[in-house]
Specification:
263 residues; alpha/beta; five-stranded parallel beta sheet
């Protein structure tokens, strides 16, 4: 296995990285600053980005920093559910048994917001999968929450198509309520190189395993998307292990990328 071959103590490019070992960059700092403002004075937040660009990593950093007395966050990711099913899931996540009827579900959520210590924040991950009716219901829920103290807040996190959906006339009222926006972009070439070095160092490896030219090639092939960088860098480590070499140069990269591509 490549861990033994490179004398690594852990997988350097795993998606299941402990919070203390997560990569931090300017994109994340900017995202965290906007999310902090959402808790302080915003109502509806929007975070978008390509698949694998780091939206989940941003949430992993954000959520543990919330003080229970300041904000209670409820994370929902089964956003492909029909509208009523989505509201029932929210109620269940709040630790209550869902009532019958959409109006009663609204009431349960709002009542729970009034009893919360601090702010109640509903986070909808993969929000690009929300259908039109669900988005309308979330907008009505936010509208109903204007007089709730402490306030009910909402965060929508999803891929790029979510922005286009919200620009439709049907959802103009919801879009107008977005007070915090952050578009998480891919890594630059320099960031990609530092990201690869950081991940190897965190795993106890040598950052010089990858030639500089290979790091550039990995960025160009993946577009700087961290999940794809992880996959391709791992493919290179596996190939190097098979070839019994300890350095990843351009020739080895070409071998690995050939296996990495789908026919």
């Amino acid at each position: 296995m490549y861990l033994d071959h490179f004398q690594l103590k852990s997988q350097p490019f795993s998606e299941h990285t402990p919070i203390t070992a997560l990569w931090q960059d300017q994109r994340m700092d900017e995202g965290l600053a906007r999310l902090d403002y959402l808790i302080q004075g915003g109502q509806l937040g929007l975070v978008t980005g390509l698949s694998g660009v780091g939206k989940s990593a941003l949430l992993k950093r954000f959520l543990p920093g919330l003080l229970p007395q300041r904000c209670q966050a409820v994370y929902c990711h089964l956003t492909h559910l029909p509208s009523v099913g989505l509201l029932k899931m929210v109620v269940a996540q709040l630790g209550e048994t869902p009532r019958r009827g959409k109006e009663r579900l609204y009431e349960q959520i709002l009542e729970r917001a009034t009893r919360a210590e601090g702010t109640l924040l509903l986070i909808f991950d993969e929000a690009h999968l929300l259908d039109g009716d669900a988005l309308t219901d979330l907008r009505l829920l936010i509208s109903s929450a204007l007089d709730v103290r402490p306030p009910l807040k909402m965060l929508l996190v999803g891929q790029e198509p979510l922005r286009a959906v919200l620009r439709r006339a049907r959802h103009a009222d919801l879009l107008n309520r977005v007070s915090v926006r952050h578009q998480l972009r891919p890594l630059s070439r320099e960031q990609t190189s530092r990201y690869i070095d950081f991940q190897l160092s965190q795993a106890g490896g040598d950052p010089q395993v990858f030639d500089d030219s290979v790091k550039t090639a990995i960025h160009d092939f993946t577009g700087g998307v961290p999940r794809q960088i992880n996959n391709l860098a791992t493919a290179c480590l596996v190939q190097a292990t098979a070839d019994k070499v300890l350095r990843i140069d351009d020739n080895l990269f070409q071998q690995a990328v050939g296996e990495f591509q789908l026919p």
